[in-house]
């Protein structure tokens, strides 16, 4: 190539550099850390240990490593190690990493039965109105569940209703899971009211009939709330709600059979009266069985194999055997 051409090329290059921004070279991706390598290989215990070591060097600087370590320890159900990793960065007044650490740490506390510690983490988040609703609704729901377990039913119901009444179009996919969970636990509160309603003792037939009608209405109230949970189309909480509808009818059957007898029943009539009740109310077990079957069919269709799907299968097998035994005892 001649010197003229070389000079021309250099001039063109100089002109291009003067009139166009410099080319940005692609960033060189750093090699994965040993912890990330262990995680990608599926070695959760090794990964959790390595993330924790990085976190302990400087929790503020390596907050993401602390969070990752905490998540892995909870997956391994090593709650104490999770608390150790998450404690330094869990801050209800902090940013996203700190908030996520609060929820994972709250799970560890919850599994250890430390409900007050869970509330101390989540209540301030629920009250931060400047936060995106995905954080507030989630905190409000988990906080309410702890209150419910502590016996503060009315306060828990108020919080859950605020979440459940949030219009669905305003929610993203993550918030909709929280929305379904809130609806489920509202139904659980209704289940508690239903199951705790007592039949009167030493009453007439008419008084017993009135109590049965009240009990049936409470059942229907809970049934409706569980149906609303199913209608959220959340697989996990929908399966849970389907199972609990079956348990509503099974519980009513058992409570009716063990209820006090009316005053009009003489001692020598009690055995035959109980037998008549078992026959009369047996349809409740049929409703329970149908709900278990439908719920299990849905779980299998959508490929859900979680806790409630397994529990539904157990309930279905147990109730099927119970009905079979009752048929044989009755000579059917």
How would you explain this protein's 3D organization?
It is built from 15 helices and no strands. It is mostly helical and 332 residues long. The protein has a domain of 134 residues. α8 runs parallel beside α10, α10 packs antiparallel against α11 and α12 packs antiparallel against α14. The relative contact order is 0.05.
Concise description?
The protein is mainly α.
Which characteristics define this entry?
332 residues; 15 helices; disordered N terminus
Nearest-angstrom radius of gyration?
30 Å
> Major beta sheet, specifics?
none
Distance N to C terminus: 106 Å
Q: Find the count of extended strands (DSSP E, 2+ residues).
A: 0
List the helices and strands and how they pair.
Elements: H1 3-19, H2 34-40, H3 44-57, H4 63-75, H5 79-86, H6 96-111, H7 115-126, H8 133-149, H9 153-164, H10 173-196, H11 205-231, H12 235-257, H13 270-280, H14 282-302, H15 307-329
Helix pairs in contact: 2-3, 3-4, 4-5, 4-6, 5-6, 6-7, 7-8, 8-9, 8-10, 9-10, 10-11, 10-12, 11-12, 12-14, 12-15, 14-15
